[in-house]
Amino acid sequence: MNAHELKTKTLHYWRFTRNGYNYIATEVGKFKSDILVSNGKEIIECEIKISKNDLKNDLKKKKHRIYEKPSNWYSSWIPNKFYFAVPADLIELATELVEGTAYGVILVSDKNFTKRKKENYCKIVKKAKNIQDNFKKKLHKQIIMRESSEIIRLRLKMYS
């Protein structure tokens, strides 16, 4: 599986399998999160990882130090929860690496895409805890703006 497939299956999971996560966008926010989703009450970030190095290197990023000890300056950009979404061969490593953190882990299935909306491609292996409790309207607004931009860009591609 490549990153595009993992991202698409994770987007599908939050939009169609999980109830109420109607706001969903990619590459959004101060930290250019792979996926941000919201139900209007909480915001969840998912980072897509396809290799051991990709996963280990991501944890070295400054944002994880910020998420660990959120400051007031960054608080508008921090989701309520954070997950790594990984294929089966990375589940053990991902679970081990997030031990002792608030982070969760999602297993992304390698099953083929279907046209069924209710198909489930993901499973939460380790449930995330809150990084912060407050719902951030500024970040939620960015999800909505990015979501609409993605739709427009896809439609423009149809005509070019």
In short:
By secondary structure, the protein is α/β, with parallel strands linked by helices.
Describe this structure in words.
This protein is an alpha/beta fold and 160 residues long. The chain has a single domain (3-158), classed as Trna Endonuclease, Chain: A, domain 1. It has helices at residues 3-17, 52-58, 62-68, 91-97, 137-158, and strands spanning 23-28, 33-38, 43-48, 81-86, 104-108, 122-126.
Key phrases:
160 residues; alpha/beta; six-stranded mixed beta sheet
Largest sheet, described in full? 6 strands, mixed
Mean pLDDT: 93
Uncertain parts: none
Rounded Rg:
15 Å
Q: What is the H-and-E element order?
A: HEEEHHEHEEH
How much of the sequence lies in strands comes to 15-25%
Q: What is the number of beta strands?
A: 6
Overall CATH class: Alpha Beta
Which topology does CATH recognise?
Answer: Trna Endonuclease, Chain: A, domain 1
CATH architecture: 3-Layer(aba) Sandwich
- Note the quaternary state here: single chain
Number of helices: 5
Which term fits the overall shape? globular
Strand adjacency order, main sheet: 1-2-3-4-5-6
Distance between the termini: 29 Å
**Helix amount, in percent?**
25-40%
* Count of discrete structural domains: 1
- Assign the structural class, choosing from mainly alpha, mainly beta, alpha/beta, alpha+beta, or little secondary structure: alpha/beta
